[in-house]
Structures are given as C-alpha cells and as structure tokens.
Amino acid sequence: MNRALKYAYDAINGKKLVNKQIKQACQRFIDDLNRVDFPYYYDEAYADKVINFIEMLPTDNREQLKLLDFQVFLISQLFGWRTTNGGMRFKTFLYSCARKSGKSFIIASLALVYLFLEPGYSKQVLFTAGSLQQAHLAFDKAKNQLQNVSRVSSYMRRRFKVTSEKIFDTETDSFAVPLATNGTNNLDGYGADLAVMDECANISNKVFEDTKKVLESGMIQNENGLLCMISTAGFNMTSSFKAQCDYACDILSGKVTDDRYLALIYSLDDPEEVYEPKAWIKANPILANEKIAETMQAKIQADLDTATKQGDISNVLVKNFNMWTPGRVDAYIDPANWNKNLITPPSIYGKDAYIGIDLSTRNDLTSISWLIPLDDLTYYADSFSFIGTANGIERKERTDEFNYRLAAKRGECSITELESGIIDVDAVYSWLMNFITENNLNVLGIGYDPWNSNNLIARLEKQLALPLVGVRQGGLTLNVPTRQFKDLLLDGRLKHRDNKLLEYAINNAVVKLVNNNWILNKVDRMSGKHIDPAAALINAYVLGMNYFDEQLKNKERNEYFESDEFSF
C-alpha cells in the first residue's frame, strides 16, 4: 500500500489523529479511487516520482529530506490525479493549517515540481501575497532549494538562472516570480501554470476577489493551470477566504460536488481541545516530526499560558490552532458554538411559531426570522431576508462583504427587482403570507421594532388576525432575552440549519452594554456588515422565551383540573 493511501486509511481508522475535515478528505480520496466511469485516474507511479524528486532536494544542512505522511498525502493527491489526456485533475487547491506548519515549504515544492516535472514550455509560476515581502517567503524557499541543488549538480547550475526576483529555467523557457497583490495591474499579462495566493486571510475581500479573478482568467486555456489558496485562519468572519473555506467544507462533507477542487484544512474540532496537547497535531500536522515537536509544543504552550492569563485566547485559536474566531471579547456568539447546533431542517408544518421582523432603511436588510418550539424542548431558528440594491448589487456585496446573489440561490434571501433598488414591501408581505400559509403555522406572535415600522406592519395589522407586538429596542426590553438566547444556544437548545446569511449576521453582532444591559450592535457601526437577521431573531425570542414554561404550567393546571383534588 502506498504512503498516501495508508495515510488515508490510518486517518479514517483512528490510527492517526486528524480533524473532521481531514477525515472527510481521506474518505473522498478512497471513494474516488473506487469510482467507476470517473473522468479522472490516479497515476500512482507519477505521484511517487514527484515524492522522490522532492525528497532528493538537499536541505540547507545537506541532510536527506524525508516527507511526513501528511505532506505525501497532499502532494500525491495534487499530482497523482490526472485527466484522461494526462492533465491535472484539480484546478483549485485550498490548503489551511496553523502557522509554522511548513506552508512555505509546500508552496516552494509545488513550484519546483511545476518547473521541473510537469510537461510543457514557457511555464509560469506566480507567488502572490498581500505584500511583496510575504510573496518572497515561499519564493525564497524555492530559490534556496535550487541553490542547494546547484551546489551538488553542475547540470542544474547551467539549467537554472536565479536572481533575487526571478527563477528562470533555460531549458523550457519557464520562470517563477514573486508578486504583490496590492494592485491587479501587477498580475495583468501573466498566464500562470501555477498561481499561489499566500496568507489569503490577510487580504481584503476586494483584493482577494480581484486577484483570484485575474489569475483564473490568465490560466483559463491552460489545461494544467492550478490556483492554490493557502493560509492560516483569520479574524474576519466575512472574508472571501473564509467563504472559500466554507465552500471547501461543503465539498468535503458531500453537500457540494466539485471534482476539480481539492481542499485540505487542518484545525482543531473544538476550541476546548486547546487544553489537550495530544489534539494539537490536528491543526499542526508538522508535529508528526518529533524533533520539531520538542520545541514547537513548548512554544504553543507558552503562547496559550500567556493568552489564558490575559483572558483572551482568540489569537492563539487563530494562529496556533487554525480556528476562525472574531477575535473580539465583546463578540456576541462564538462561531464554533453557533456551528455546534447545526441540524438538518425539521418539518415545521403545523407548528407553533414566533416571528421576528427587522425592517430596513434604504441600504439595510429587511429580515424575517422565526423560532419554532420543538417537542424535545428545543427551538429551531431560521431566517429569510430582502435585499435592497440602491447603489447596485455588486457594490453592496463589496461594502457588506457578503455574496447576496449566492445566498439567494441557496434560498436565504431575495434581491429586490425594483429599478429604484428599494425593497419591495409588497414582495415582503406576500412572502410572509405564503410562508405562514404553506407551513400551516400557528403564529403566536410577530415581534417588530415600533420605532422603525413601515406600511408592512400596517398591512399585517389590517389583513391578519395575528398578535403583532412592538418590541422596544432598549436595554430594559432586550437585556434578559439577549442573554438568555445565548445561554439557550450554549446549552444546545437552540438549533438552526446551515443558513449562511443568518450566520453572517450572528458573526457581525457584538454586545453593547447600556447601564449593564445587553443590546446587540454591529461589530462596526460605520461598516456595511449587517445584523438584521439576528436582530429579527431576538425580536422573535422576546415573545417566545417563556414558551416551554407556559406549556409546563398549562400541563400542570390541566392535570390539577383532571385530578381528584379538583371538584365542584
């Protein structure tokens, strides 16, 4: 059994400690090997050739290089899978792990394989990052590897010309260069065979999207073109790279099919694992090297001890354990806690329901969220929003740092069709009426902000025999529900489906203290990051927070009236 396949089986069988996403990646690898009528094949001999080539490269101290099993698994998948005419199967590769886990070495190795082994002439390898200094990290690693080879090979000295800013292969007229992404003009004119976007979590959304678009368009006719997005996690929960990581997780879980996208994400499964040193290898696969582990584990422990004493481990979670976190002590709900309560949507037909509405101004969202009490004493939460486009949908997506058009395809929102870009109140009213009717909901209350109401509330009041309740947005009204809502989630009694727009709103919400009362606020009041679906959900919870207590009281009353203790 080859090393890549053994790694996959060992990970699935628990012989190697890996996180959920890597187990899924291993299962995907095995499943793909067994697929029939699959338009790709696995060339084990070529994968081994690539592994042998990398392990022949001299190290700085001229020791024999031995790749770790996780590195073999990564490289074997990238270069072993081929199309029927011999090209690369994968067009996109997302790789994420904790810092100091050898990302630069992986990038440099991929570059040298492209220059040396992949067929073709005039090949281009681009090392890109948010700054030229960052782009140089992996480029310089590749340059050093070549210089080490040149010391022992006169052939290599003749074949390659190496300068501070370029590696040039005289035999195939190919080159590798480092480039900064601080302007896409730096990337115009290139047609990369291999394009690397390094430290993607530190790149702004606009620069990320523009860079990705330019690089992909440059390699569109290149059968062997590969875009690599490589980074440790970050603090921006609405970043473009975070969205790519979410998409990658959907592929690994089988929710989305994309046979030309390879994803390997090494991270902890739970924040509590930071206090379990044996689990650290999940996010730091380089710890499989015992020599490295001796010093690296001590450094991680020191970082964790310092952060724990300071009362904020968010930086350690991100950098040392590759876990996305808002990095704010006033963040309302931690993303890991939110995602723990993810479920498949249950049937809500005929159920009791509490509905919350957060109405919009010109550039906000109008959001309708609902809470459904379930039979197991839990609540099910979900949401739907209406998006205004007063300044154009593309500009709004850039400003808000969220892809509304993709969310609309997922059924999470509707984008206004009015030429003015203003939200169509008629459309909101029709959607809500249809939602209630189609699900035969027993609506026990509709909560809304009376200070920001519009004619939607007036129409509901006239047309529906439903309890409309104004929910004042001050601390006296919202403090207890806002605190209890979070406790409900932490206790595992608030469930929700994978609604990315609702998750986006939750991640943007921070706690504002007003006379020691909790009120939800935007993470940055001047930004376009919205919390409307979350605010609507709190409005619903204000009405439904005592549902199960009331049900219990009613049951107790009924049992009393049916008992012998009660009689006329």
From TrEMBL:
One Pfam short name: TerL_ATPase
Stretches assigned to the Terminase large subunit-like endonuclease domain: 255-541
Every Terminase large subunit-like ATPase domain range: 69-248
Gene3D superfamilies: P-loop containing nucleotide triphosphate hydrolases (3.40.50.300)
GO MF annotation terms: endonuclease activity
Domain of life: Bacteria
Identification of the protein by name: Terminase
Source species: Ligilactobacillus agilis
